[in-house]
Amino acid sequence: MFDIQSGANGEVLLIGRFDAQQVDKARDVFLGIEQSKVVDFARLEYIASAGLGILLATQKKLSESGGALKLINVNKHIRDVFHFSGFDQIFEIE
Amino acid sequence: MQVEVERDLQSLSELFRRAGEFFEANGVGDDARGVLEMAIEELFTNLVKYNQESKTAVMMRMEIEEDRVVLSFTDFDTDRFDITEFPEVDASQALSDRTPGGLGIHLMKKMSDGVEYEYSNRVAKTTLYKRMN
Q: What's the complex ipTM?
């Protein structure tokens, strides 16, 4: 199961398992982000490299207009994934 | 544990389900689970993506060897595709220089305890090792 919802403060809530089968769904949502946004990982269990690609593409697009994604509530495994992929250097992670 | 699945991304759900049962039965820790699930997805999607002509099933096998999980994928009709020979990804690149792609194999190598590749008579076997806890 994977779902993307909008939080009470406009943040993006990622829920469940973000695997390769969910890429199209996620791409539709992230391509629509036009300004800085918080992405909440609290309920995300798993992310595949395809998901990392979508985050990276969104961050690159936003950076052209001075915006950025901020990633919050990242669990230890996903934090390790961000570390080894160098995402901890190109995203603000809280 | 051994399972054969169709060469189709839809098979990922079955692979994750069987892996989850294996993790539960063998007390595999959360960190190891995360790495192994990522490896299952990356290895399987590569088999699907880069060998679409073959109709043969793909075999996944997992077993415990001392304090580690041994995960392997066997493809019975394929060209050589050795992920151990892939060039290193530069994870320190600036955002402006980065392009999506290649991270899955990079992460598998960095976060596992070893990856091996065997190829003979069009049969390829990729094996990944990960300590259980």
A: 0.85
pLDDT exceeds 80 at position B60: yes
Q: Choose among A19, A57, A63: nearest Cβ to B100.
A: A57
**pLDDT per residue as tens digits for the range A62-87:** 999 999 999 999 999 899 999 999 99
Is residue A60 less than 8 Å (CB to CB) from chain B?
Answer: yes
**Do residue A52 and residue B103 have CB atoms under 8 angstroms apart?**
yes
CB B79 within 8 A of CB B51: yes
Share of chain B above pLDDT 90, in %: 71
Dihedral pair phi/psi, residue B23, rounded to 5°? -60, -45
- DSSP run (H or E) holding A11: none
pLDDT in tens, A2-21: 999 999 999 999 999 998 88
Contacts of B12 in chain A (CB under 8 A): 19-21
The DSSP line for chain B is: -EEEE-SSGGGHHHHHHHHHHHHHHHT--HHHHHHHHHHHHHHHHHHHHH--S----EEEEEEEETTEEEEEEEESS-----GGGSPPP-TT--GGG--SSSHHHHHHHHHSS-EEEEEETTEEEEEEEEE--
Global pTM reads 0.88
